[in-house]
Structures are given as C-alpha cells and as structure tokens.
Amino acid sequence: MAVKIKVIRASLLKHPVRNIILLVVGGTVLLGLVVGESIFGYYYFKYRHIVDEKLQKPLFEQTAKIYAAPKEVRIGQKLSPLTVAQELRDAGYSGDNDRERSRMGTYALNLGSITIQPGPQSYHSEQGATVSFDRGMVSRISGDSGQQLDAYEVEPQLITGLSEGPYRTKRRLVTFNELPPNLVNAVTSIEDRRFFDHGGVDYYSMLGWIWHDLRHDRRYEGGGSTLTMQLSRGLFLSPERRIKRKIIEIAITFQLENRFTKQQIFQIYANEIPLGQQGSFAINGFGQAAQTYFGKDIRQLNLAQCALLAGMIQHPSYLNPYRHPDRAIKRRNTVLDAMVETGKITKEESIEAKAYPLKLAPINIDAGEAPYFVDLVRDRLVQHLGDTDFNRQGLRIYTSLDPDLQREATEAVTEGMKAVDVQVEKLHAKHVKAGDDSPIVYPQVALVALNPHTGQVLALVGGRNYGASQYDHAVSNRPTGSIFKPFVYAAAFNTSLAGTILTQPPAQGPPSEQLVSSDPAPPDPGRPSGVFTAITMLNNNLTTFEGGYAPGNYHNDARYTGDITARTALQFSQNNATVSLAQMVGYANVAALARDAGVKSARGTPSVALGSYGATPLDMAGAYTTFANGGVRIDPWLVASVRSASGDVLNDYPPNSKPILDPRVAYLTLALMENVVNSGTGATIRAHGFTAPAAGKTGTSHDAWFAGFTSNLLCVVWIGNDDYTDIKQEGGKTAAPIWADFMKHAVQLPQYSDTRQFPTPNGLSTVRLDRVTNLLADASCPQDYDAVFLDGTAPTQTCDQSAGDQRTVFQKLFGIGKESPVAPPGAPANGLPAMPAQPTGSQAAAAGAQPGPAPPPPDEQKKKKKGFFAKLFGKGGDDNKQQQADPAQPH
C-alpha cells in the first residue's frame, strides 16, 4: 500500500510568528467580511421595507400652486411679441422649438405677431388668438375663427407654491427634461463625475477622496458620497456622522439604484437638494432656487447661473450669493474649472461665464412672492375647503394678485417707511431731550390695493418685512380714525334725498348721564336748519355731547371755531363739526350705514363719528368701494377659482356685492373727498406729484391712515404701533406719501394708465359758486369754483346780491333807489342750502399743479364793520375781499 506523505516546506517553518500573524489577519478579515456582510444584509433588508413604504407615496408633497390674475392684452397697449412670449413661457407654455409640448399651452412667434394656443390644463378655454404688433403696440387681436377681438387674456403667472411642513419648505418640482444640460453637467462635474457610470457607490472616487483628504486638497473631488448616496441621506437619514449611518446610506443607495434609472435619480435629487434660506422659508430644489435667486424658470438659466447653483450644494448658507457674493463667485468659478476638466465646456466658455455678473433677483421676497397675500389665501382656502389637506392634492389656486402692482406696493412701502422712521427718530430725540428715556418704537405698516369695481385685491403688503414678522397687519383690527368720517357725511346726504330737514342742536352743557339717542336731534327753531348740503353750517366749538363725550379739535385751530360749512369740516377734518352732524343725522343711522359698508363693529354712539370703532385695512378698502363704485359695496376677494392638478374646475368664487348708497349720495360724498385731496389735509399727495383725478381722506388718531381712489384703483395705507401706543404722526405726512408714491407708479402701468374723471350720475347739477359767499358766481366775484348739487338744491342768489347797499352817494343822501336784498353767507337759498363740489377737468389739473389748502370760506372770514364816513364815501373794509389764511395742519 502506497503511503503519500506531505512534507512541510522548511521555509514555512522558518517564520512561525509571521505565519501566525498572517493567519490571524486573514481570519480576522474573513470574519470581518462575514460579519460586515451580515450587518449590511440586515440593514439592507430592514430598510428595504422602509424604502418600499416611503416610495409607495409621492416623494414630495404636491403642494398647492398659487397663480396670479390673468393679464389682459388690449389693442393700443405698448407691448412686443417677445414680451408676451416671455410671459407665456413663465406661465408654463412651450414654444415651437421646445422638445416637449406643454399641456398648459403653446405659442409660436411670427414676424410681427404671436399665436397663442391654450392647452387642456390652461386656466382659459382652449380658444387661441393671434396678436399682431405695429411700432411697439398691439395693433390687432384675432380669434381662432378670425373674429376681431378688443382684448385677450393670457395665462396667469405662477406666483409660488404653498410651503410644506414645519420648516416652511418651498420647492418647484421639475422633470429631468426641464433641467438645462449645463446644470446637469455642472452638478456631476463638481459632485459626482462618474454618476452615470457607477452603480451607486464610486469606489474609485472614494479612494481618491481619501487621498486628497490626507493631502488636504479637496478642491475638485466631490467627496466619498455619490449623488445617490446624498439623496439617500437627504430622503431617509439624519446628517449625523456615524459608521452605522454610512452603512445604512449605502444599503439604501443600492436599493434606489435598483429601482430607478439614472435620470430618475437625478430628477429626484434636483427636487430634494437644500439650497439655502430666504426669510422664513427653506429653499429646496433647483426649480425653486432658480426662481429665488434669479427670478427665472429653470429652463432659462445660463451657464454661469447653473454653475453657481451647483456650487451652492456644498454649503448653501456659507455660499449664499446675497450675503456672501465673493464666496459664491469663487465657488462658481471652481465649478466652471471642474467642467473644463471633465470636458463638458471649453476653456473659452469658462472664461466667458466667469466674467458674467451675478445678476440676482431682488432679495425682497415680499415683492416677488407676496407672502402676506399668499398666507391670507391659505387662510381663505381653509375657510372654503374646511381643512388643510388641500395642500397635498396639488391644487391650482387662481387668485386676484397683480404681480406688477405687488412689486410697486412693496417698493412704495419699503421706501416710504424709511421717511417715516426719520420722523419717528426726530420725535424720539425730542422726548429724550425732555427727559423721557422710553425706548424708540418703529411702527408697522400695511397697504391694500384693489379694483374698486370688482373687489379684486390686486396687491397686499402686511408689514415692513415678512422675514422679520409674519403677522399680517392688513387684517389687523385697528381704530379707523378720521378715514371713517365720510360715512357721517354720506349718512347726512342720505337724508337729503327724502328732503329731511336737519337742525343743528344747541351745544350741550356739562356732561350728561342721559342715554345716547338713536334718532336725529329734535329741531331747534333757534338754530339753522335745512336740507343737508356741503355748505350746511355746523357748530365746531368744543362741545360736550351726549354721554359726556367731549372731543377736541385738531390743533384747536381758532380759524375753525364757531359755525363752519360741512365742506370745510371734512376738508380740514374738524372733529366737533363732524360729531355735531352725526348727532343731527342720528348716531345709530351713521353706525348702520357703516356696518352695511363693512365696518361691522360700529355702534350708535357719538364717538362713532370719529372712527373710534375698529376695522382692518382690508375692511376699510372694501368699505371705500361704496364711494368709488356708485354706492355699491364689493366684498374684497383673493381667490377666484380652485382647480385640480389637471386643470378641472373644483370651485369658482364669484364676488359678492350689495347696494349701500344711492349713486347720487355716493358721488356727493366723493366730491367732498376730492376737495380733501385737492386742497385739504390730503393735499400731500399733490405735493408728491400725483396729479390724476382722485378722492380720499386722511386719518390721524393713535394710528395714521390714508384711504383714497381713482377711477380704476383704490388703495388704503395704515401705519401704527403693534403695542397700540400713539404713533404721534399725521396721516397726511406718513401714510399719504406712501399712497402717493404707490399710485404714481401704478398709473404708469398699462393696465392702470387710463384714469379718468369720476362719472357724474343723473340727478345732480353742476354750478359755479363764489368762494367768498358760496352763492352763484358772476363777473363781480372772480374767485369761484365748480360745485355739484342734488337737483333743486343749488342756491339761486348771485354773489353780487350779497354785497350790501349798492346805491351811489347821492342816492344814499337823498333816499333815492332801493337797497338790494342781502342773504347772509351760508343761509338757505329758496329754503335749501347749497353744496359745493370739487373742480373737474382743467380745474382739477390746476388744483393738482398748485396743491395746498384753499382760503377759508366765508364762515371763517371776519368782516370789519364800516364806519359812518366809510359807508358814506364807499371806503373801508371790503366785504367781498377774500382774506388769505395760513394752511391748516393736516389731519
């Protein structure tokens, strides 16, 4: 039997220690591989269930998208085909040369025209049009069937998406095909050069990363994590640095690589990657970042902009281009160099892109995304839809917002509050000098602009800075102050329609304990009476009214003591005269009218006349539509339509309207408010260069207000302190300049440039009155103005009939001739007082060119009594000579 004996080589026996070490090391490695594979397998199968569960749902919330109101293209409008094309592309339309046809719609640029074809997901019906242009203007609009159109609405612009989650994340979802090739190449060049080649883990890159890390040279290498590993970490894991997390990250990476194509993985990555913070919002994904940093759709980014976004991935906060532009540019250039190394671009293209400036979008998120407006839309949706699940259904919310006007509103508030702050600081310095060491308080602000004929809220600013405070002051309840006063005068004009005789009651004595009356004050034969007009005489002496209410007058100006006309009372915002008028009309009647107009808190007390009851700036904007819209109140609205993600209509929300005033009453009140703007406390807006026909009212109590409107735009500005302390600033000097600046820029926009005179309704007469006597003007009374009256209420006497005894010296000596009858200024003519209105046409322009308070009317002018010889020889004081007075302080 043969026996085979294996002899151990002597060489192995020579190094027993080394052999033992090799065996131990080999065994340890083998054991480590077995254990590692077991651990990896454990986590792989454990997280497969977690990944399956997460992938069964959409990776990203289908948040509701907020759209602006559609823009209207009109014949004669200054536009170009390229401008319209850009707006359509921003709205999601595709052009003829695009790879994919958008379901939102398409457009085709032709020579001198553009053809628009809405798609199945368009806000509009699929009715197209061709818009032709000539010399920079729209010359013709033709429908699909060749019919000629006066106007055509283009697709509404996407403003923003509602934020998601507790971190208020904003993202705009994009597809891989929408990503510019330069962006894909920039990201892979700097973050994962072999992304389209490896299977999820790039072992070569990982070893290279270790080598460069040891050499402290990591300029170009993206690190050990591939894009898929970064995605795994972002979607499923926390950012902590532990070996366990790295193992789980690789396990999830393999699962993602097995489930998705490389293009799908990159698309998910492009929507998930965090790219900084703006205000209180987290910016996630390249789609949102393109809009945030450049104000562009992602498809419009150039090479330099793509490289900048790719560079931000490394450290979004540290490389934020707004805060650290130098760092951002340096990192961008590093990305461009990496693209040259990988052959994605040429050296020349890199040099050109490096020379490109940042050209960032304005940092003011309040202007671009209207966050206060969007938050209010969210609140309205919760009211309409009953819960908050709508933000996961991808709904398309079509709103009232005009983005152009929103930008102007934000700019006007930003610049205007700088001037307000200067006034606040000056006042605070005076207080400090006087020994008051209270801290300075900078006020807040709100601006609401709407279409007075539709109620459409076109722009809304709810505070100084949304990033600093999300509290929306546009819907904060505040005392309305003197912008409420027009409702007192409207209630008085209401009584004129029925021919009701109003009598001025005697002044109250000491404070009374009696209850406030709900009815007009009883007639007093000893006081002037008649149908109310703008020259009805009102008592403006300091008075104690029912219930002990004793308001002061602004600055207690002696020129306005005693009886003054209603026109003057509103023009210079006199308090006692206004409360006196409310007493004549009935406090309850004033409050009822205000409640109908939207000031729901108003109650029938004397203080209601001075705006002591609260309303929001948005409420007051709605209330003022009553005057601007012929007596019909329109509820302000923000949401027009809610549609599904595919464009199907779920709910439409038509505006609500309600007739409140007779059109004549609305216009008569409007005429008084025109006088406020042209020559009263609101004349500040004329001094700031706003010359279009307008009506409005200042307000100064604890807060500062200005509410006013043109024929096609209404705006309310409020300024006040959050702690309800007195701002101690006048509405005419704080809120009115902001209003004027906003409106001045608004009327330069095509859609608001056609401001006109306010149309006069039937049943009113326009006459010319003498400024001194408030009687009909003739050649002997050159200082005159136009005035509007209810038919039958205009004065019939002329100003020369009030000049006194006009006989010659010989007639007076010998008793020859007859004295002319004299009617005292402001007295009834034919039993009815007259009401002056405001200048129109060229006179309105003149008033705008020379702003400032008008001379006091006759009730404020003191006449000097003539002596005997003066009467005999016609010398001495001239009763008809107008005495100029200093302008009244704004209120």
Word description of this protein:
By secondary structure, the protein is α+β, with helices and mostly antiparallel strands. 35% of the residues lie in helices and 15% in strands. It has 26 helices and 30 strands. The strands form ten sheets. It has a five-stranded mixed sheet with strand order 9-1-13-23-24, covered by helices on one side. A five-stranded mixed sheet has the order 3-4-5-6-7, covered by helices on one side. Helix 2 packs across helix 7, helix 15 runs antiparallel to helix 23 and helix 16 runs parallel beside helix 18. The longest helix is centred in the N-terminal third of the chain and has 40 residues. It is elongated. The C terminus is likely disordered.
